[in-house]
Design brief:
Elements lengths: L2 H12 L25 H10 L2 H5 L18 H18 L4 H10 L8 H11 L6 H16 L6 H8 L10 H24 L10 H7 L3 H16 L9 H19 L2 H4 L2 H17 L6 H4 L8 H11 L2 H12 L7
Helix pairs in contact: 2-5, 4-5, 4-9, 4-11, 5-8, 5-9, 6-14, 8-9, 9-11, 9-12, 10-12, 14-16, 14-17
């Protein structure tokens, strides 16, 4: 018995009967020889961490565009907070932490520059639409490694595809990440908004605070404990009705106070216009696309999707630099 097989046997003996065992994975899109050390979901996590799309998350907007300050979240720090919250819940419920971590670390790989502003812009102009969860799967299947993809397991792909509210993952581990994503962004977006002077803790309605707590730390602790208590020993992962209602009200409060706040979101129209302008440019200058993307035309991929692949993969900084190079006159030098 090699190391991987020993770890798989440990999972079988220790994890919840409702956990997704590595040995029971449905496999990958392309069959591969097993690693002798790592179970399949650990291997997926490693592939995600070593991917270019994961590294680019450090320069992609979470909520606030180009904030002045070192402590605001980026798409990468959001991803790490989702992963930590999800692993805490998974460990308490004796679920598969490797699967949870792989889904969490990969769930936003397809996110655009400038956060949801960039996503809205591409969704508006692309006839095929654009959703970051679908793009995350496209990234791992097709775009990573210059068109080879990283060939993740079906369970990780499922969790990434269905991490949004509109989806429902097929594994409990995927459900953990789906909830952890919501917990994380409510927690850290509130923290960033307070840091930025957009709102204060005292502005949170009492009917919400009295249920989930009076600080970011208390709220995070409340939701994690509630999910664990409500899900222990069950073939499901969920909050209590009281907690779910409080989260709904908290999200509504955040949309009113932060996500639609003109101070916090005043620059988003500029970001959307920049994305649309780049889309129109590359649709008419296809030879400016990276070679591996341009070659996707030969296998029948629509040009509109390929242009979205390129723009969607950009960091905030690179998108701005491309716009400047294309449209802003350069200083004349003698």
């Amino acid at each position: 018995m090699n190391i991987r097989e020993s770890l798989e046997q440990w999972e079988k003996e220790y994890l919840s009967p409702y956990a997704m065992l590595s040995m029971n994975s449905k496999g990958r899109l392309r069959a591969e020889e097993q690693c002798d050390i790592r179970p399949v979901f650990q291997r997926d996590r490693d592939r995600i961490i070593h991917s270019k799309s994961f590294r680019r998350l450090k320069d992609k907007t979470q909520v606030f565009l180009t904030p002045e300050g070192d402590h605001y979240r980026t798409r990468l720090t959001h991803t790490l907070e989702v992963s930590q919250t999800a692993r805490t819940i998974a460990k308490a419920l004796q679920l598969n932490e490797d699967l949870v971590e792989a889904i969490a670390l990969g769930h936003d790989l397809g996110h655009t520059p400038f956060g949801h502003a960039g996503e809205r812009a591409l969704n508006r102009v692309c006839p095929y639409g654009f959703k970051h969860n679908e793009q995350s799967v496209r990234t791992i299947d097709l775009l990573e490694k210059d068109g080879q993809g990283i060939n993740l397991t079906l369970e990780v792909r499922d969790g990434i595809m269905n991490h949004q509210t509109s989806g429902m993952p097929s594994t409990l581990e995927g459900k953990v990440v789906r909830l952890a994503d919501k917990i994380a962004y409510i927690h850290h977006d509130m923290d960033d908004a307070i840091r930025g002077g957009i709102l204060t803790e005292e502005e949170v309605p009492e009917e919400i605070s009295s249920v989930i707590g009076y600080s970011c730390g208390q709220r995070l602790d409340f939701f994690i404990h509630n999910i664990v208590t409500n899900s222990k020993g069950k073939d499901d992962v969920s909050m209590s009705p009281e907690a779910a209602e409080a989260m709904k009200k908290m999200r509504e409060f955040m949309f009113r106070s932060v996500y639609k706040n003109p101070i916090a979101k005043g620059e988003e129209n500029k970001a959307e216009n920049l994305i649309v302008t780049l889309y129109e440019y590359y649709m008419n200058h296809t030879k400016r696309l990276p070679e591996f993307l341009y070659k996707l035309l030969d296998v029948g991929e629509p040009l509109e999707k390929i242009v979205c692949d390129y723009i969607g993969s950009m960091t905030d900084r690179f998108a701005i630099a491309q716009y400047q190079e294309i449209y802003i006159p350069k200083t004349w030098h003698r």
